[in-house]
Amino acid sequence: MAASLRAVWPSCLWMRSVAAYKQVPLRIGAVCHACHKSTYSALPEDYNCKVELALTSDSKTIVCYHPSLEIPYEHTKPVPRPDPLNNKEETLDQMLKSRLNEEKLQNDRGLTIEELSKMFYTTKHRWYPVGQYQRRRKNPNPPKDR
User: Where in the cell is it found (predicted)?
Assistant: First the structure.
């Protein structure tokens, strides 16, 4: 049944598009034998969904209904929560600090000026720090654009 529905689905969708755009009447006999209300599942059996196909009363639209099935509470597991007393990485700040304290990140000096200039296609002078003379000359309150 699953293989026959897979073969018929493209033609059903094509007939639906022809009926919608070219006003060609959809032949009920051509579609109903394959697309009548049925249960079709290409999903695994343990998947939490049941698919049902049906035609509307005017036989111009194919409807797919796939509600998720209810899972009994007895079959669920609680979300594991770490112990706040023994967990060192409780907050985001602590996670970042513990990561920065790792030895490989402490000894990392970053990219060199040559690597940065090759990466961004600029000159080496762009990556040197700006001196105090240039910082003093910069206007702290530049005029706003219109």
Answer: Mitochondrion
